[in-house]
């Protein structure tokens, strides 16, 4: 009997195949007495962790009530667009509205003029006649039925999302002990720390007793890490050659949705469930047959897109019209504003970078990127814009003056239309007229952009003033008008991209998922690039020479592995990297200390901060921003022969040595203090807050003097985030400079990104010859038909889990 009572304390894991590795479905887990909450064992941890991070990001901006209202008004918007469009097509008498047909009102009290005056009810058909028109059109009936089905589907999704929001809200309050009014004061790292602590006491994941920060990121970002890796290896066909336009990047929300449907979570995708790749894709024996099967799936998806193209296109046009018509009328210049393109967000994204981290980084890089793009003004276009603005303004002024003199002028046909069009033309042409008093430094502005976006092709260095560089930057930082046009054309172009370019890459896609999939114990299949393993995916040209065994086929391009590792290490200071990654970080810090010996002193850099800030047109920079400006602009000042604070001319230096000097100073200021998990991490601790943490020789404290009084009033979490971003920016500048020096010294040529098919040909072990044994490593959506998001927020539907298999030639590798 006692044994039976003891057995009752254990619960069998039921229906947990989605979150359990093979062979562990029948595990028994111990349930402590009194633990009846729904978070003791969570069936789908990927989805749960994703909703926690999504809730944190949205609540910081809006709050629970606003999240629910947003979901509700999305339903109302769709209903409004459908009903209002149906009304405009079937219930309005346009001949009467445009006065093409005379209306004669009868009544003794009406004058002769009032009898012929058209009123709004005259142009609207009676409800009986309107209903008769709708019922007599079979196409309208069919479209309304389809819209009703989709609206009901959206209603179910909204109800599910609201219930999920409420569940996560209760989890924050009851399990994590964070009240909703305090959530905005917590960083994601603090929330994540409580999750890890909760796992130790009340396991949410039963396969691993201890969860690391990297485990949580892997679960949240399974699919995104795959997508980032495929963009990095030029596997997805987003670069097209168009007649008259040449090479161009085309990646829209609709195309991205189809990629994910085919590869990740569709009924015919490569994954057998939400956490593991289908076993047949892990074997090389039938790769040709699997490629043909994938090709048929892509063809079927393309044909379905082609069939639905007219309906989706109509919805896109209506959605764009109702969304942007009023904005364009009120602010025509808004179409000339820029935004980070969807391709740019994937190209610039680190492995294991959450949405809010990417959004913050892109937000900090927006102003310098906009200033850099504004450098390129065509003199001929400026002359034409000035003259068009002059002629349009002259006519506009006369019409306004006549209207002020006599308002009856407005009754003249098309006068209001002429005034509106002229106003739009004037606003647009003024955007092409440069500020004659502004002086730009393209090279330094591009370096300032690099400090925030962290990635830049090698051939941009030294060519910041060339139009080719500007055109490539425009692919990452596009006009809003281009974004709208691409989304409108997406229903037409997407089917052809799927049917032709993507189908031809079927074999490469099969090889990619087989070779770059690894099974991590307690997490499932993940992308091997997401492990940020220098030995497996490092690039010798990015300071990992002698530390990596990767072939050209296995290397991540543009230093993605190295920069992602540094970014994750800085953002998660308590994370303990594997042995190989620790060796790389130590090697990097030793290199920083060596280069700092030949660099300028931090005091000199800080004394130049006001001049450097002005040089980079950074009007209202914070302390970290001013420090970055000093590092970026110091080479220009020294090259020009300007004297330093001591009135003696200083020798020229590079941005690498300047960045190394500051990084070494910050690192030195950390060593006397306790409470840090790693000495190379430059983030402040709680105990150091009053002393402003970085006070070695008063180096960074001096930069906080006058301009940082506002920052001192901010929370400690905001201060930590600011300095983490500044530290990563300094590392990005330093690593790019060292990479450029290495490539120039080795060959004198910049290394270009090579398509994946060429890399595989040069690989020591091509995808066909690599083995495919699975190894277990112990390592420390909502659907929207047609519409698109204004900012590239990753859809909530990306909560599904992904699983990945290891690079085959490393089956003997351990957890590192």
From TrEMBL:
One of its GO terms (cellular component) is phagophore assembly site membrane. GO terms for biological process: autophagy of mitochondrion; lipid transport; piecemeal microautophagy of the nucleus; protein localization to phagophore assembly site; reticulophagy. Its main location: membrane. Residues 760-782 have a biased composition (Polar residues). It comes from the Eukaryota. Residues 760-816 are annotated as: Disordered. It is found in: Preautophagosomal structure membrane. The chain crosses the membrane at residues 64-89, 139-156, 297-322, 380-402, 414-433. Residues 789-802 have a biased composition (Acidic residues). It holds the Pfam family ATG9. It is a multi-pass membrane protein. InterPro entries: Autophagy-rel_prot_9. Coiled coil: none annotated. Keywords: Autophagy, Lipid transport, Membrane, Transmembrane, Transmembrane helix, Transport. Belongs to the ATG9 family. Phospholipid scramblase involved in autophagy. Cycles between the preautophagosomal structure/phagophore assembly site (PAS) and the cytoplasmic vesicle pool and supplies membrane for the growing autophagosome. Lipid scramblase activity plays a key role in preautophagosomal structure/phagophore assembly by distributing the phospholipids that arrive through ATG2 from the cytoplasmic to the luminal leaflet of the bilayer, thereby driving autophagosomal membrane expansion. This is Autophagy-related protein 9.
């Amino acid at each position: 009997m006692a044994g039976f009572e003891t057995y009752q304390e254990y619960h069998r894991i039921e229906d947990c195949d989605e979150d359990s590795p093979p062979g562990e479905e029948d595990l028994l887990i111990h349930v402590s007495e009194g633990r009846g909450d729904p978070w003791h064992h969570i069936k789908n941890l990927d989805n749960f962790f994703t909703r926690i991070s999504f809730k944190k990001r949205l609540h910081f901006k809006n709050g629970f009530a606003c999240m629910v209202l947003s979901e509700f008004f999305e339903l109302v918007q769709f209903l409004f667009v459908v009903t209002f469009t149906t009304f405009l097509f079937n219930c309005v008498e346009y001949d009467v509205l445009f006065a093409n047909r005379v209306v004669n009102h009868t009544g003794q009290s009406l004058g002769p003029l009032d009898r012929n005056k058209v009123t709004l009810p005259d142009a609207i058909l009676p409800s009986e006649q309107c209903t008769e028109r709708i019922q007599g059109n079979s196409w309208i009936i069919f479209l309304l039925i389809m819209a009703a089905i989709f609206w009901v589907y959206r209603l179910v999704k909204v109800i599910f999302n609201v219930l999920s929001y409420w569940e996560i809200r209760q989890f924050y309050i009851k399990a994590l002990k964070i009240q909703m009014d305090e959530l905005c004061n917590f960083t994601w790292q603090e929330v994540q720390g409580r999750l890890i602590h909760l796992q130790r006491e009340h396991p949410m994941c039963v396969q691993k007793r201890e969860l690391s920060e990297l485990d949580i990121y892997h679960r949240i970002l399974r699919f995104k890490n795959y997508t980032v890796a495929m963009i990095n290896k030029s596997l997805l066909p987003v670069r097209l050659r168009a007649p008259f336009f040449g090479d161009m990047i085309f990646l829209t929300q609709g195309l991205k949705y189809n990629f994910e449907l085919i590869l990740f979570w569709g009924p015919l995708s490569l994954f057998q469930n939400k956490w593991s790749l289908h076993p047949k894709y892990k074997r090389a024996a039938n790769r040709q047959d699997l490629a043909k099967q994938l090709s048929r799936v892509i063809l079927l998806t393309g044909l379905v897109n082609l069939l639905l193209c007219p309906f989706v296109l109509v919805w896109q046009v209506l959605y764009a019209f109702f969304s942007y018509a009023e904005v364009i009328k009120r602010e025509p210049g808004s179409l000339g504003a820029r935004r980070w393109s969807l391709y740019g967000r994937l190209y610039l994204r680190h492995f294991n970078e959450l949405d809010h981290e990417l959004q913050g980084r892109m937000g900090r890089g927006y102003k310098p990127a906009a200033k850099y793009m504004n450098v390129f003004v065509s003199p001929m276009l400026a002359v034409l814009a000035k003259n068009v603005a002059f002629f349009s303004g002259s006519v506009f002024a006369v019409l306004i003056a006549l209207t002020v003199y006599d308002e009856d002028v407005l009754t003249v046909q098309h006068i209001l239309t002429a005034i509106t069009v002229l106003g739009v033309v004037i606003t647009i042409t003024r955007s092409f007229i440069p500020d004659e008093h502004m002086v730009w430094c393209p090279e330094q502005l591009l370096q300032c952009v690099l400090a925030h976006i962290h990635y830049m092709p090698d051939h941009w260095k030294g060519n910041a003033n060339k139009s080719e560089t500007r055109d490539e930057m425009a692919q990452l930082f596009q006009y809003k008008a281009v974004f709208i046009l691409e989304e409108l054309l997406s229903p037409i172009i997407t089917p052809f991209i799927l049917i032709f370019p993507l189908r031809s890459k079927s074999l490469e896609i099969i090889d990619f998922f087989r070779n770059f999939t690894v099974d991590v114990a307690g997490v499932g299949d993940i992308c091997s690039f997401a492990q940020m393993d220098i030995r497996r995916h490092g690039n010798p040209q990015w300071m990992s020479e002698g530390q990596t065994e990767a072939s050209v086929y296995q290397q991540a391009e543009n230093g993605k592995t190295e920069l992602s590792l540094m970014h994750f290490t800085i953002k998660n200071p308590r994370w303990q990297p594997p042995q190989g990654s620790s060796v790389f970080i130590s090697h990097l810090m030793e290199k920083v200390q060596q280069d700092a010996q030949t660099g300028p002193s931090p005091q000199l850099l800080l004394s130049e901060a006001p001049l450097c800030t002005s040089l980079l047109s950074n009007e209202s920079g914070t302390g970290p921003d001013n420090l970055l400006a000093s590092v970026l602009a110091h080479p220009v000042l020294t090259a020009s022969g300007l004297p330093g604070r001591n009135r003696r001319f200083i020798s020229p230096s590079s941005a690498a040595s300047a960045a190394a000097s500051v990084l070494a100073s910050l690192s030195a200021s950390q060593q006397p203090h306790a409470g840090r998990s790693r000495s190379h991490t430059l983030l402040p601790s709680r105990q150091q807050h009053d002393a402003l943490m970085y006070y070695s020789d008063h180096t960074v404290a001096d930069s906080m003097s006058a301009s940082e009084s506002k920052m001192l009033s901010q929370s400690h979490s905001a201060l930590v985030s600011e300095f983490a971003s500044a530290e990563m920016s300094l590392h990005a500048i330093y690593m790019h400079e060292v990479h450029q020096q290495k490539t120039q010294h080795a060959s004198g040529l910049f290394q270009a990104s090579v398509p994946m098919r060429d890399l595989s040909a040069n690989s020591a072990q091509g995808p066909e010859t690599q083995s495919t044994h699975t190894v277990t490593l112990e390592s420390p959506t909502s659907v929207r038909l047609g519409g698109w998001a204004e900012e590239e927020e990753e859809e909530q539907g990306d909560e599904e889990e992904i699983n990945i298999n290891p690079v085959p030639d490393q089956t003997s590798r351990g957890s590192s």
